[in-house]
TrEMBL record:
PROSITE patterns: HTH_RRF2_2. It comes from Blautia intestinihominis. It comes from the Bacteria. The lineage of its organism: Bacteria, Bacillati, Bacillota, Clostridia, Lachnospirales. This is Rrf2 family transcriptional regulator. Pfam families: Rrf2. InterPro entries: Tscrpt_reg_Rrf2, WH-like_DNA-bd_sf, WH_DNA-bd_sf. SUPFAM superfamilies: Winged helix' DNA-binding domain (SSF46785).
Amino acid sequence: MLITRECDYAVRVVRALAAGGRMSVGDICDKEFITAPFAYKILKKLQKAEIVKGFRGVHGGYSLNRRAEDLTLYDIYTAIDPEFLIIDCLEPGYECPRNGEGDHACTIHCELCKIQKELCGMLKSSNLKDLLPSDFMEEPVDS
């Protein structure tokens, strides 16, 4: 499946952090019904993609590292699954015995390429600020 449970939970993590300020992993888990081991795995990937910022120490936790208007579902999904393909045959280097050149091109593959492009465009078209209620959002923490 294209949008995995991990991708779905990553959106939940970002949604929790969109309320502003720092949150502990425990608070994120309680708010979004995610297990701590899974949350840590997701936060590590989101941090690597510079979507969230981690803080160490007694008052540590996580916060958004980007403004809500600069963050899309596509950004979140590709932070978790960089390939983010609807089917394996769209993967670069994949050699399908049914897909040839010109008149021998796989019409299914061609259609799936169009769908993939459209889906990515749609996921890039709305930012997080557009998707969440305005009273829910705050700006990322600078500290």
